[in-house]
Write a structure and sequence with these properties.
Immunoglobulin-like, five-stranded mixed sheet, elongated, binds copper (II) ion
Length: 266
């Protein structure tokens, strides 16, 4: 039995990075990779246990199929066997629980970070503020605003909403959190590679919910610094202030600006 289990395990360990993803996304942040590896571990465990169950079933069906009226040997109260099939599943559950705990703790960890972004969701768009800097990104529906962050750095996000419940979801980060009015949800992620990743609202929040998309643009630390500095000229500052004022007015009056290039409704 040990050999039967050791063989597939050895095959998986030796094959290294070719362990299948079992339909999941490897992710681009450190925590999304941990979640992905946890998923792989669970899936491999399920395949081994499931395979074992199928083999035992087939073995019993074939070996003990009816071959006459004689009743085969009845095995009951076989203590070592009963102890084995009670203890082994308990050990498996403890193992899976421990691995989950480690990954979850990584997921909710909030290590100190120099990069802080205040993310504000609203009907129907996103606002990204960089406290301590003039950088300000605001965009609604078809404008698909960009949240710019540096690669290889912990990015701390303070997430909230101005009106109703929204969902901050980035597919390639294997990550989703509620954006709730009156509540600030905090989390930290570390994007490992540069690139542009699609984000969207995952909480049905009104008429233009489906257009509430944004991009996470991961750039090199030097590019990030240049981008931050680009807001330091007076013209951009004025633009940012105008956008902030427009947002405040829009929220105060409850009248949302319709998306520019999209026709909806009656
Ligand atoms: Cu929304």
């Amino acid at each position: 039995m040990r050999r039967a289990l050791a063989l597939p395990l050895a095959a998986l360990v030796l094959s290294g990075c070719t362990v299948p993803g079992f339909g999941a996304n490897p992710g681009d942040t450190t925590s999304s990779k941990s979640v992905f590896h946890l998923w792989q571990g669970f899936s491999i465990g399920a395949v081994i246990v499931g395979g074992l169950v199928v083999v035992l079933m087939l073995w019993s069906i074939i070996r003990d199929r009816r071959r006459g009226d004689e009743i085969p040997v009845q095995t009951q109260y076989h203590i070592p066997l009963e102890v084995t099939y009670t203890v082994v599943p308990i050990l498996i559950v403890i193992g899976l629980f421990a691995a989950t705990l480690v990954v979850e703790n990584k997921e909710v960890a909030n290590p100190s970070s120099n990069v802080v972004v205040d993310v504000n969701a609203f009907q129907w768009g996103w606002e990204f503020l960089y406290p301590g800097h003039n950088a300000f990104v605001y965009g609604q529906t078809t404008q698909s605003p960009e949240m710019v962050i540096p690669a290889g750095a912990n990015v701390h996000v303070n997430l909230t909403s101005t009106d109703v419940m929204h969902g901050f979801y980035v597919h390639d980060f294997n990550f989703s959190r509620y954006a709730q009015p009156g509540v600030t949800n905090q989390f930290t992620f570390l994007a490992q590679n540069t690139g542009t990743f699609l984000g969207q609202c995952t909480q049905l929040c009104g008429l233009y919910h489906s257009l509430m998309v944004f991009q996470v643009k991961v750039v090199t630390p030097a590019q990030y610094q240049t981008w931050l500095n680009s807001f330091n000229n007076p013209a951009d500052e004025l633009k940012a202030q105008a956008a902030a004022t427009a947002l405040q007015q829009e929220l105060a009056t409850g009248v949302s600006t319709k998306p520019a290039n999209t026709k909806f409704g009656r």
